[in-house]
Amino acid sequence: MTGPAATPGTNAGSAAEAPVMLEVEHLVVEFRSGKERVQAVSDISFEVRTGETLGLVGESGCGKTTTGRALVQVQPATSGSVRFQGQDLGRLSKRELRKTRTRIQMIFQDPISSLNPRRRIRDIVAEPLAIWGTGSAEERAAQVRSMLESVGIDPDTAGDRRPQEFSGGQCQRISIARALMAKPSMLICDEPVSALDVSVQAQILNLLADLKAAFGLTMVFIAHDLAVVKNVSDRVAVMYLGKLVELADSDDLYRSPAHPYTEALMASIPEPDPEHVSTHEPLTGELPSPLNPPSGCRFRTRCPYVQDRCASEEPPLREVSPGHQVACHFPLRQLSPVPERPAATTV
Amino acid sequence: MIRPTAGRGNAGTLHFPDVSDLADPLLEVEDLVTSFRTTRGTVHAVDRVSLTVNRGQTLGVVGESGSGKTVLSRSIMGLLPARDVLRSGTVRFAGHDLTAMEPAQLRQVWGAQLSMIFQDPMTALNPVVRIGRQITESLRLHLKMDRKEATATAIELLRSVGIPSPEQRIRSYPFQLSGGMRQRVMIAIALACAPRLVLADEPTTGLDVTVQAQILDLLAAMQQERHMAVILVTHDLGVVAKRADDIAVMYAGRIVERAPTRTLFAHTRMPYTRALMDSIPRLSDPSGTRLRAIGGRPPDLIHPPTGCRFSPRCPYVQDKCREADPPLRTAGSPDHLFACWFPLVDGVPSGPSGSGQPVTLTTNGAPNNAVEAPAS
What we know:
Distance between the termini of chain B: 52 Å
CATH architecture of the domain at 14-120 and 175-240 in chain A: 3-Layer(aba) Sandwich
Mean pLDDT of chain A: 88
Strand content of chain B: 15-25%
Structural class of chain B: alpha/beta
Number of strands of chain B: 14
CATH superfamily of the domain at 14-120 and 175-240 in chain A: P-loop containing nucleotide triphosphate hydrolases
Helix content of chain B: 25-40%
Strand content of chain A: 15-25%
Number of strands of chain A: 12
Radius of gyration of chain A: 21 Å
Largest sheet of chain B: 8 strands, mixed
CATH class of the domain at 14-120 and 175-240 in chain A: Alpha Beta
Low-confidence stretches of chain B: 1-10, 352-376
Number of helices of chain B: 12
Order of helices and strands of chain A: HEEEHEEHEHHHHEHEHEEHHHEE
Largest sheet of chain A: 8 strands, mixed
Shape of chain B: globular
Strand order of the largest sheet of chain B: 6-7-8-3-9-10-12-11
Mean pLDDT of chain B: 86
Oligomer: heterodimer
Shape of chain A: globular
Distance between the termini of chain A: 46 Å
Helix content of chain A: 25-40%
Largest interface: A-B, 65 and 59 residues
Radius of gyration of chain B: 22 Å
Low-confidence stretches of chain A: 1-14, 335-341
């Protein structure tokens, strides 16, 4: 487990044949804002295969967190379906949903506020077992011990303490331990490292990779930093203003991004190398308001390659190479020396 | 010791020469020590830090949470709590010793000559004051502008930091703006009186990577235009790699390595600096590449470890490291300082006993005591 060796389960080739665990079809999530309706997620479809990690990346406001919440039905879908292991979660009764949710757990961005400040660590971690009345008190205590150990928290010194005594990184470890107590098959991670220092971020990302292998987890990993997402994911879905704009194997996405937005996201990542020369223009402007999204392609207002057609016609998600989907009228040419796209109009 | 809020004595007007008449270094910090008295003991947050910043240059200060980088920037500014703080050492800025200044004198410096951009614009901005007034406040105080002139200047400033329709925006409250827009307003406030030095404390932490790139580019453009010096404080070496002239790496209240940026990256001497670089996920690495995380956490600054403070987490630790405190010294290049007994040479520790193999540790999710060294 040392060294930069590939982590088990992160090989896309093997996961491609695995059965589908989660299937999202035409998912729409709307919020009401006064009399108006805002579509936070507009008609997205994707699937997650058993054993794989799907990354969901995009800027604040792109709908990635809402999508994550809709996957566990914390946020009900306005239309469309989320099928988990064959069951349509939206059609389950409350009781059935509660039971199913033990198999699909979530961890959140702010590790400190997602733990109850008044409870002790051992009780926080034991709660999923206590709720379901699993095992005797002694058995539960033993499970809590072993889970805390596997996330790198010493149960003897930490068990009786409260969340405020721990750093952000340690609280995230505790949140992960709590999520795994119910023995889920799927873990949804919503920006689990964006509030942490790079040094702690690396520890948590390695921990998630280890736990994924140890517990045979399937993951959805949501974040705004493409470098982080790429590191942990087999496949990456890029979201922009409620839409899925590109979906590809993560190394493929990096080698040949087809959507101008993906290219721009890459250009924004600060490379820890003073000699590195960025080949792409970083993104300008801000995300348009989802109350009144641009017509046609939603990215056109910030796209350096925008054409007339982009305003009049919405580009559908289509396959440009096997397993690589993009929603763009003029996708960046795949691994070709001559770009097919029209010349960049200056922004 | 400075009590910024106390006293309103008339201190007379300070004289600051024009930028072109200033001598280098613009800022010279010598043996700065800041400690806090707490019920648990004294926290040595900044321990004998010396650094210099020249006119128009950028110094990156990099370290983890708890390394003392924020206390360092606040100590330079003189923005420390009045009670239970011990500060010694000197901070010479444009020919004046800030540590010797009266509060009334400091108020002439803050905003006008020396300003700060804080990490969280939501809490740093006043939530019940329109952003226009938060900018015009210092223009009227320091530059003695009248209301009309100050408002016109504020609109221009907002335009220059990329805020659309600034004529309307000056009437907005902070909560009506996005995080990126609020940070732009913070920059406009900090730059309003054309200061010579701006301290930016994690100005982009908590923002999206796309917005981060925009904010850092903006800061660099403003710096160039105004020939302003910047101290950019961050936990991410990636943020300063292409933006700083020099980088100072802090650990446990001390500077442990300092060099011109290219030298620091090309000839890293301190294992801690190397470890910080290695912990950043790179887009160019294949998916699933294991990150070389630094195990453990920065030490408790009430009882720092003896010897080298990084020794409990260092993969190359030797007995000497635990016994004796390595001084900040040079080898070869005079502007490259580091505090390590067995500095890295081409990624391998040097010295008589430092030629041993890096310690390789397994991690099954457990925090280990050292850097996860690459498998050889």
